[in-house]
Amino acid sequence: MLDTLYKFGKHMSNDSSRQEFDDFITIPPLDEKEKSRQLQFLVAEVIFDLDAGSFYLNDRPVVFDDSDKSAKWSPYNLRCLKIQGGNNKSIYPTVDPRKSFDPWKKTFFGKEDKNGNPPKKAELVEAIEKDFPDLAGSPVCWAVTEVFKMRNAFESTFPEWKKVTEALDWGEKSRVVLLFASVKSAELDCPEPKPVAQLEGYDEFLRQKFLQKGSETNSEGEKNIFISKVCYVTGEQRMDVGEPSFGSRYSLNKMFVTTTKNYASGFDDKDFFKNYQAGTEIQTYLERGSKYVLDNLTVKIAGIDHCVIPQFRAGQPVDLEDQSTRLKGKSELLFAMHKKESFGGLIYDIKNIADGETYWITFLGYESDGNFFKTINLIKDISKTHFETVIRVLRDVDSEMAELAGQQWLDTMTYGKEKTPYDFNFYTIYSLIPVRKEKEKRNAALAIFKAILERRPIASEALFGHFVELIQCHRFERYTGYNILQNNNFDFATRDAVFQYHAFLHFLKKIKLLAMDEKLKPSVATLEEKNAAISAFFERMGYTDDQRALFYLGRILNSVGRAQADKEHKSKPVLNKLNYNGMDSHDIRRLRKDLFEKCRQYTTPQKNVLGFNEMNFSKFTDLFIDSKDAPWDKRMKPDEALFYLLSGYSFRAPEEVKDDSETLTTETEN
After folding, report:
1. Which of 42, 258, 434, 486 is the most buried (most CB within 10 A)?
2. Residue 229 — very low, low, confident or very high, per pLDDT cuts 50/70/90?
């Protein structure tokens, strides 16, 4: 990982457009949904009149634009710094107020101590006087000291950010994403408001604090003596090698620390600073590389933020920006929910997904609020070949499922009121595995994806267990607190779950990662199989005789349910005869008996339900074998039985689809 961060950081450092403080500037993020609603993103200014001892808001809205670093109100020009967090003093005259209004106030007005006593100084002044006394008499220090005198008045007027937005009154279509402070002062020769960040002394303070600190002492408090040493990152002899000191708490470099040693597990704590040492310039590259990865190479996997960290072959010439774009695109193709054919170009074209480079990928799951970095998952050393194979096979499965009649695959893969079609990928699979929000950091879906990408077999029993839990969520409407997409129509929810699970099982078989009993061989299609759609489905999915037996029983269940719907029993009471914890042999025999009685009950001169299901009963009877030599419950687990039973229930032969509008309630949005 260090080598990757070093390469990215060094590449960024060669950018001619870089400015002195770029490493410490943060750009306020703009929400894509808000952008689509054509909201205005604005810059707000609080003006402190030091001569009058008063303050007011500039009521002229300025449009936020970060495209030009040199623009008057850009985050770069106004020094919108990353929030350091921890015990660091607030030094932020410009912030994104949606998240950082309190640090902005502490910069100018300090904070109460733990006993509730009011502050004596602004935190920016405290930071300057404590570590950089030579700047204590600078204009910026004097100006902030004068601003501090307005603390009580300001706190009573604007105790929270909401009060500021109400005072600005720029309308519901506006969002303030940048807030900065300006001063007017005859003493400073500022008759017009001047940003505090541009007052003399502030840039020098940043220079001394961030750019000239070096690695003067190690973790033991001992002064580093700079002699020629080996840099751990590059393996080169350098004169500036010492213990790394990274200022940002939100950094991948926090993986190399003595407290939670994710990547430094083999280091001796006592000699940590001697083993893990790097040149000061190399440390800068590592920090820039970390920022690049966190800004450009992240993706959500099973609801968890992950960094995409490539490792390239030694000596391999690589276009880092091009590879980053490709890796980001491939990762989204695999993990993100997106529309079919919604992306164009080489990156998203599955036929041209191979890019000619050689690399391995690590997905590093993390938790952060921007002030810390905590690793919570690691999917490591995935070969490029396997990564691309997974994407290709998912796309192949998507196409193969669409070719099969009977399971309405295109309808299964549509979402929302507009019935937008989406690709089948790991995001779809994530929505099939119930995850409680309080357990999302260590969830079953994440464990399954990790196993697939690291090429470890998946037990079929575990998957059927997840399916049963999913069906229970739909049947008993257990949506709150889960990652499951709500669907208030049980028939359609079951259909989607059943056939998306079939696609997942088919995918695992194709990449040879489904761990199943080798004794259970798929059945050969028989000549008496009259329904071509069912026969093709069995063959493609590799159904065994036991699985076919449950499928045919599910077909009967569907027929009775439709008959009940015709009689205005919209809830289909026959569904209450299922055991949603799983169906053992006793449950199955009882259901078969109940279904036979129901078929007789609903048979009329106009509709011969029993006669229609005669073949299904016959198939079930022939295939459902429960004997002392081969007991059913030894051959099929109850979870699996429920899955294949509901497969038959959800299957729609082509001639049956046209009748759905008459027997099924209107499908609600997924």
Report:
1. 434
2. confident
